[in-house]
Amino acid sequence: MPTVQTKPLFFEQTFPRTRAALLGRPAVPEQKTVKKRTTTKLPAWLLPIVNVFLSGLIGLSILIGSILVVPGVYYFFFPADIVKMEPPEVESPLGGEYTTEQTIENKEEYKYTPEYDETLPDGNWISIPLIGVKTELRPTEKPEEALEKGVWWVPDFGKAGDTELPMIVAAHRFGWQWWWQSDYWKYNSFYLLPEVQPGDRVEIISDHRKWEYEIYAGEEGQDITDYDADLILYTCKYLQSPVRHFRYARLIDPTANTQQ
Asked: In 3D, which of 120, 87, 94, 95 has the Cα closest to residue 201?
């Protein structure tokens, strides 16, 4: 007899697993191809090197984190003491003694205006010959805008040549990473300000006139203590701490002995 082919029932086509379960036969699971993971093992001789490298990387991270965090935390609980600079016993090469305090009357008596010099640059500049600083002063309301490029001139205090209010300027010591890709830091930062000593000269150029100042004192601390100075310079001591290096200078008249 010829074999009669019958079509599968509708529900068998639609629900094959359900029909198999109804007939008591286990459903045949679909075959899936499982890809085996291939792992690459490091050579035995390379493992110690990798471990040493990772340990060094972790140690370096901890060290950098300590440098950035520890000083700030320490000085938060233990404020820094004021450490004053000891001036030399000899007299100032510009006249007078370093310990002589200037009164307002004495300052006004020797106030002068330098001659106009068209060869001087436009704008406002500071020069500290001893440490090679020569950069533009930026009197911005937001300090970070000026400090990102160099020296900030505090706008609420004195101007070049003022004797009633001190002229205050500040700059970073360490700056940003791109500072160190060239000699930019030498001319635009106060990294070497701690090397400035009493008797050293600072020049301020403004409106094509040059005023000269003499450093007479300095200290380490957290706050300015001598607002009688004509010029105050400061920078940070550490990368992250409230301790600052301060230098105090007085305005001089190169044509006269203004320090008597």
From this structure: 94
pLDDT digits (tens, 9 = 90+) for 4-48: 555 554 444 544 555 545 455 555 555 556 566 666 676 777 778
Separation in Å, CA 159 to CA 26, 112, 128: 96, 14, 17
Residue given tokens 């001591």 in the structure block: 237
Reply yes or no on domain 83-252 having CATH 2.40.260.10: yes
Q: Give CA–CA dist 212/244, Å, rounded.
A: 24
Sign of the CA dihedral with 112 first, then 150, 196, and 68 last: positive
Q: Tokens at residue 164, please?
A: 């009633």
State the chain's maximal CA–CA distance in angstroms. 139
DSSP track, 201-234: EEEEEETTEEEEEEEEEEEEESS---TTSSEEEE
For tokens 């609980």, the residue is 77
Please state, for a pLDDT cut of 70, what percent of the chain lies above it. Answer: 66
Calculate Rg over the CA atoms of the chain: 37
Domain ranges of the chain: 46-78, 83-252
